[in-house]
């Protein structure tokens, strides 16, 4: 039996759109962190647990503008209130955005009370969900909340069709980090020194290559004219670089050992961002909602979000000592 909670058309104001080296959409950890915090509350009140989460974006607006005479976009900043001494507070650059998303959340546990219990849980979620911040932003509105259960394979297929129709128009964020390992193997056939970072750049960069226009008898030189040709990405699809989690860069310290930690009652570990690859895909393409659910995966010093286990890729990267980490 599978139970799903759908938070449909969640409107978020001033969410954080910067995640490590990437920007344009909140990190997957923001959404799973929201689900985890909600799960802790529901576990106390209704004895149920929330696990995987599908992320579907309907609309977004990044707070950025292009100054006159300036080639790059910059984030729009806000003036902070005066300090307690009456002085102007410094502006700390932040990347903010408004967005509308739908979250499909996997629910584990028995919802007691039948249809009445489901309605009571729905009313409870309508009250609790907006009280939590999502990606640092404020939830202004949730259009509808659905709680649905499938007990057989046929019911699962029917429920998947209902959910994917509900997610349209929009795009689901899928994990495509396995493309990095495949492309790295291809790069190393011609360049033995190629690294996983090079493979990641091939997916995240906009690349063009010059094709020289040579007249009859002309030799290539600095003044040769050329046509610039766009270089497609190694794989097809709407692929984007994303932050997929964290990698430990220190040992795990006992609770209270590190001063000024956010929570002195739990063990502490220093981490850095780990990067991967995502794909935006229309919901009408999915065959099973379970295939697009993001889950936490903690193993061997890695704390990641993914659809499936990546033990082979973890092992291949565990001994590298790079400034940035990619999965």
Mean pLDDT across the residues is 86
Structural domains: how many: 2
Q: Evaluate the radius of gyration.
A: 23 Å
The low-confidence runs, each spanning 5 or more residues with pLDDT under 50, are 309-324
Residues in helix, %: 10-25%
Please state roughly what percent of the residues sit in beta strands, choosing from under 5%, 5-15%, 15-25%, 25-35%, 35-45% or over 45%: 25-35%
Total number of strands: 16
Shape verdict = globular
Order of helices and strands: EEEHEEEEHEHEHHEEEEEEHE
Cα end-to-end separation: 32 Å
What is the makeup of the main sheet? 10 strands, mixed
Labels describing this entry:
327 residues; alpha+beta; 2 domains; ten-stranded mixed beta sheet; two-stranded antiparallel sheet; 16 strands; 34% strand; globular
Summarize it.
The chain has 2 domains: 2-81 and 90-169; 178-212 and 224-279 and 286-326, no CATH class.
Overview of this protein structure:
Helix content is 24%, strand content 34%. The chain has 6 helices and 16 strands. Strands 1, 4, 7, 8, 9, 12, 13, 14, 15 and 16 form a 10-stranded mixed beta sheet that branches. A two-stranded antiparallel ribbon has the order 2-3. The chain starts with a strand and ends with a strand. Residues 309-324 have low confidence and may be disordered.
